[in-house]
Amino acid sequence: MADLNNVAIDEKIDWSKIEVKPELISRAKKLEGVNEQKLALKISNIDAFYGKIQALRRVSFGVPEGSIVSLLGANGAGKTTTLRVISGLVHAAAGKIEFFDEDITNLSPEKITRKGIIQVPEGRQVFPELTVEENLKIGSYSIKQSNAERSKSLDMIYTFFPKLKQRRAQVAATLSGGEQQMLAIGRGLMGKPRVLLLDEPSLGLAPIIVKEIFEIIKMLNRETGTTILLVEQNATKALKISHFGFVLETGRVTIGDKAEVLLNNEDIKKAYLGGGH
Ligand SMILES: Nc1ncnc2c1ncn2[C@@H]1O[C@H](COP(=O)(O)OP(=O)(O)OP(=O)(O)O)[C@@H](O)[C@H]1O
Ligand SMILES: [Mg+2]
């Protein structure tokens, strides 16, 4: 048995001895080659546990620089856990996480944030008593920035989210769900991410607001080049703005491909895209 702690996607491995679907790995390699892009994140064979319960099993996938990658799957599949392992909030019991070829596995969350990987957590989590602008400013304190840089970031965020500009002096508790989600994303952007991890930004929002938020995410990626790893249950909508998608099923990555291929795959349509709007 190979040493799973040191397995990387592109190393020569006898896959028959390892519990990872070889076709998934070869597809991940192909994606890397086709794009000739660097991988911003390379997740290789991650295991993670809550006590004795294993939440992730040999999770492997890549996030090319400048792309939007969707991580899809049902409730409890392990999507949030995957993001939390990347941000250092959950320990990786095995496997490796690389950020532009640098091994960042199990570094502290503070170190990972300072490198430019910023997670926008599930459920929005804004500071309800603080104003929109105060919430945004808090996001800028995760890294060293001058006041001039801070106000430049603030202007940039207000350009992407004009609704936040209108409400800059309003306390966050009185914002609508959609506006709170925009604020949570805006706060993440204030930390100048190279990779933004978004955990179910569409959760609990009306379809029209979901559409608006997804359009902003797409625009953000296009205009700023920020790499985005997007966790979603809303598979169709997520894939439509993504370059690549991976599906998690009970802690394992079972499918990975270009987003357009996944959107047109009959089996995937039946299993994951049913009822997609
Ligand atoms: N703090 C925890 N303690 C124990 N088990 C946990 C904890 N957090 C998650 N789990 C378990 O780990 C598994 C993966 O959970 P995770 O939150 O990563 O799923 P998810 O794909 O994000 O689901 P959802 O779509 O509902 O947010 C689930 O079985 C869940 O019950
Ligand atoms: Mg989750």
Provide structural commentary.
The protein has 277 residues and is α/β, with parallel strands linked by helices. The protein has helices spanning 22-35, 79-86, 109-115, 132-140, 147-160, 162-166, 177-189, 207-224, 235-241, 259-264, 266-272, and strands at residues 39-50, 53-64, 68-72, 94-99, 102-103, 117-120, 195-199, 227-232, 244-249, 252-258. The strands form 2 sheets. The protein has a 6-stranded mixed beta sheet, sandwiched between helices. It is globular. The N and C termini lie far apart (45 Å). Residues 1-26 have low confidence and may be disordered. Bound molecules: adenosine-5'-triphosphate and magnesium ion. Adenosine-5'-triphosphate is lined by residues 50, 53, 55, 73, 75-81, 122, 233. Magnesium ion binds next to helix 2.
Bound molecules: adenosine-5'-triphosphate, magnesium ion
Helix run count: 11
Q: Note the beta-strand portion.
A: 15-25%
Helix content: 25-40%
Overall pLDDT score:
85
Number of strands: 10
Radius of gyration: 18 Å
> Outline, from the CA principal axes?
globular
First-to-last CA distance: 45 Å
Multimer state: single chain
**Main sheet strand line-up:** 6-7-8-3-9-10
Query: Residue ranges: pLDDT <50 for 5 or more in a row?
Result: 1-26
- Helices and strands, in order, run as HEEEHEEHEHHHHEHEHEEHH
Helical/strand content category: alpha/beta
What summary fits the major beta sheet? 6 strands, mixed
Blueprint (SSEs and pairs):
Blueprint: H1 22-35, E1 39-50, E2 53-64, E3 68-72, H2 79-86, E4 94-99, E5 102-103, H3 109-115, E6 117-120, H4 132-140, H5 147-160, H6 162-166, H7 177-189, E7 195-199, H8 207-224, E8 227-232, H9 235-241, E9 244-249, E10 252-258, H10 259-264, H11 266-272
Parallel strand pairs: 3-8, 3-9, 6-7, 7-8
Antiparallel strand pairs: 1-2, 1-4, 4-5, 9-10
Helix pairs in contact: 4-7
